[in-house]
Amino acid sequence: MATGIKVSEIEIVARVAHARHCANFIKENEIFVFDIEGRLLPEKSTANLCLGMLARIQPALMIAKERVEAGLEPLPVTVPYLDCYDTGIDYGGMGKVTVNLSTRQAE
Amino acid sequence: MSVKDTEITYHYETDYLKDDKLTELKEPLSKALDLDEDDFNRLSPEVKNLLSGRRRIGVTWLDDYEVVAEVITDEGCACGVKIGQKAVFDMRHRLKPELSDMVCCMNLLAPVLAIFYMSFDRASEGLNPVTRIWTHYECLKTNDALAKNKARVRVYLRDSKTHEVITKAVLDKTGVGADGNGH
Fold first, then answer.
1. pLDDT tens across B70-96, in order?
2. pLDDT value of residue A5
3. Nearest CA in chain B to A37
4. Which residue in A29, A35, A36 sits closest to A15, CA to CA?
5. Reading across the β-sheet that carries B136-138, which strands appear in turn?
6. What is the ipTM of this complex?
7. Is the pTM of this model over 0.90?
8. String of b and e for B93-119 (b: at least 16 CB within 10 Å)?
9. A30 touches chain B (CB under 8 A)
10. Strand partners, B158
């Protein structure tokens, strides 16, 4: 568990691990930042706020909140990646963005 | 009664752009999205239709309009969402925080993505990009009130410059109809 960090100060960070042909021009290492209540923090985010990526992250935010309430680490230890709803150029779509989830203490 | 093969209409027959080279889009799109010749040539009929909205409702349609999700109920919401507050998206489904005054609760906003699944499809047919049917969305959290109390939004299209609400059913500027032949 994020030792010594107040629950209210936990932020979930989704950092772009890979981006290809993204029509919303999301680039690697850009981030989306959320509070533990599942609210996007636009002022702390550097990526274009594409709902096709954000909506995919939403279930993970609910899980993080649940785990914190249970006294666990916010994020599960299983694969920390999530990819956007665009199916990519070879499968009827255009681009594909993948993010890596982590936590940090709010500044 | 038997049905002749020619009377059966499959959805994919409306993919009338499958042989379209999208010539006018090739250069700017390839440059913007880092597509090489092979990438561009293997664009699917589906994504060609997605891109064709510009031919029907204007080259700049993605910049001409915005989608607004306005809060209509807030009872039971613990995230601070209030009635009358708005989240504004561009037509590329990107949140515009500078025009939004609601906290960006993903439990409420994630379902709005459905609007944009429909918007590109509708634009490619020359229709108002925002559906006339699926206009209400609600928070994904189910509380002890058994879903009676929820934050909800109503979604509509507006002009990005004047903020006039656009309710006109058809925005087609070509008159060619949904199948490209006047129908």
1. 999 999 999 999 999 999 999 999 999
2. 77
3. B79
4. A29
5. B86-90, B65-73, B152-159, B136-138
6. 0.91
7. no
8. bbbbbeebebbbbbbbbbbbbebbeeb
9. no
10. B66, B165
